[in-house]
Description:
Layout: E1 14-16, E2 22-24, H1 26-32
Antiparallel strand pairs: 1-2
Pfam families: DUF5522
Amino acid sequence: MPLPKPQPLQPGDFYYTPEGYLVFTEQYHLRRGSCCQSGCRHCPWKFRPKSAAGGASDRK
């Protein structure tokens, strides 16, 4: 089965943090249609990694 074609970003799909990181919004994730299981800050599926290592996505 071929991978879905990436969609261009739309207004409201992301923002930049004061540190300069690009953060995808819930709007983007819902349009994407599935969870990437990376522990994204605005995950509408509320996925959280099970490891206690903690990554950039765990910081708020």
